[in-house]
Amino acid sequence: MIRVLLLCLLLSSVSLASPASELGKQYFEFISQYHVDADTLDLKKFKNQVDNAVQERCGSDANCPASKMYDDLRRLTPSLDKTSSFIAQPDLERIRLEQIGDANLDTRFALGIELRENIVYRVLTGSSAFDMGVKRGDKLLSITREGRAWGLAQNVFPDDTPVVLKLERAGQAFDLTVTPATGLLAGLLTPEGRMLTDSTAYIRIPSFKTIGTAQKVHNLLSSLQNRGAKRLVLDLRFNTGGYLDETLLTLSAFYQGEILKMRSRLGSLTYLLKNGSLEAVSNPNKVSLEFPQNFQGKVVVLVNNATASAAEVMCLAWQRASYTKFIGEGSAGRSVYATLPLKLLEGSELRLAAIRHLYPNEQPLQEKLSPDVTQKDDLQALNKGSDPILEVGLKQLEIP
Asked: What are the pLDDT digits (tens) for 334-393?
């Protein structure tokens, strides 16, 4: 997702009639006109597949509803690429409600704990869980609320009724009573930073889905450098992306110059990082940070197979442009395209790969990031006091 500097690449929606045949026609027209790789797709074959689906579902029924095509379009769209998708109107409504929930994270009761495979991955400072002594690496065995079991995957609660967490640490099980509170879910999306040694800092960015993430990272860098940080571990594990401009503005703390080209069938833009700003070459628009930082020390970046989308794009562009080392697992493989939503009949939507990510020299980004040093992420090791990827990263910082 990118909010600015792409207005010339945005596509307008088109309104057509609602029969299945018209939906198939509009669907194919959008692909042939706007898919960034339309020139290399076998469009004749794809059109035949769409037409055959209409015929099989509707025959000669002139009133055949568009909804009869939904399953076929869900099936056909992924054959274009790994990014594009078709979303029917009922599914869009569900997604919209989920996004409304995400926009109101501060109003929902939670524990301030991030779980990965039932291992506590982060405890939010200031939460009841933090105050009661829950620690990173604890294994969550059960949650009990008012004497009844509560699903481990249910990370929100209807109110602030205390819950009992059964945890395991160093092979010993114990109970802690924790009080849910509002304002904690959004906090778990916020970057966190700390000093690991007198000269080595650590920053984790869990997501780029929150506006202002880049500024918060720059603010953390300022604080950590004031405390003596000369080396940095930047942790992007489990970061599934978000706003592309937030990722690139974050990168501006570590790199200056042309960094990424984005191409659609309507044109292309090359993005430049300069003094805490993101701007497009030959375009007057730009986005700038307040009090940008320029970190000159050595950096290692931690990634795993859940590092995805805009976070991958940032890492791939950075890896090519510098000598920064990337440690961990190969990333998720969602870096090639950016999708744009195109409205179809009855409110359904085609999220089409309309933009391709390129290096500034026009070469396409790799599908996924291959780390410079491979190390499998092991969440269960956290319960034993070990973080293998972080440990390898720290060793890399020691290498001259």
From this structure: 999 999 899 987 789 999 999 999 999 999 999 999 999 999 999 999 999 999 999 999
What does DSSP assign to residue 186?
Answer: G
Q: What is the pLDDT of residues 24-74, one digit of tens each?
A: 999 999 999 999 999 999 999 999 999 999 999 998 888 899 999 999 999
User: Token pair for residue 169?
Assistant: 């640490």
How many CA atoms, within 13 angstroms, populate the side-chain half-sphere of residue 229? Answer: 25
100 φ/ψ angles, rounded to the nearest 5 degrees: -60, -40
Specify whether domain 188-337+354-398 bears CATH 3.40.50.720.
no
Using CA atoms, how far apart are residues 337 and 308, in angstroms rounded to an integer? 12
Neighbours of 29 (CB within 10 A): 14
Give the closest residue to 170 by CA, choosing from 393, 382, 27. Answer: 382
d(CA 303, CA 311): 9
Tell me the whole-structure pTM to 2 decimals: 0.88
Cα 363 from Cα 335, distance rounded (Å): 13
Q: What is the pLDDT of residues 209-250, one digit of tens each?
A: 999 999 999 999 999 999 999 999 999 999 999 999 999 999
Domain locations in the chain?
A: 7-103, 109-178, 188-337+354-398
Q: Please, which residues bridge with residue 325 across strands? A: 300
Is residue 91 packed enough to be buried (19+ CB in 10 Å), middle (13-18) or exposed (0-12)? middle
How many beta carbons lie within 10 A of that of residue 149, not counting itself?
Answer: 9
Q: Which residues pair with 144 in a beta bridge?
A: 149, 164
Query: Residues 206, 186: contact at Cβ < 8 Å?
Result: no
| Owner of token pair 């982060």 | 122
CA dihedral of 237, 366, 327, 383, whole degrees rounded to 10: 30
Q: What is d(CA 243, CA 329) in angstroms, rounded to the nearest whole number? A: 23
User: What is the second-level CATH architecture of the domain 109-178?
Assistant: Roll (2.30)
Chain-centroid distance of CA 189 in Å reads 11
192-195 and 200-204: which strand pairing?
antiparallel
Structure tokens at 95: 């997604």
